[in-house]
What we know:
By secondary structure, this protein is mainly α. It has helices spanning 9-20, 26-33, 40-47, 56-59, 67-104.
Amino acid sequence: MRQVNVFTDETRLAVIQEYLQGGKTQEELMLKYNIRGKACITNWMRKFGVYQTSTISSMKEPLKKSTKEQQLEQKVRQLESDLKKEQLRSTALSTMIDIAERELKIDIRKKSGAKR
C-alpha cells in the first residue's frame, strides 16, 4: 500500500510561492518537499486560483470562507476552550484528592484489582 503525503494549505501555498518566484522548477520542488504526484503543484495552483501571470501578493489575500466554515471554526474554538477548562478542573480535583489522602491519611481513590 502506497503512503500518501498530506500537505496543509499553508505548505501548498509556500510551494506555489517558491515556484512563482522563479527560483526552482516544479521537479526540484517535488524532490525538496517529497511531492509524489506529477501534476500536484499545477493542481494546487488551479485550486487556489493562482496562475503564473498572477502576482505573489494576490496569493496572500485571505480566502473567503463560507458562513458554514466560519460557524464551524467558531464551534472548534469553543470546544477547545471547554476542553482546556475541563482539563484544568480535572487536574485541580486530582490535586485536591492527593492532598486529602496525604493530610487525612485515608484512601479516597479506588484501588485497582479484584477483592478476594
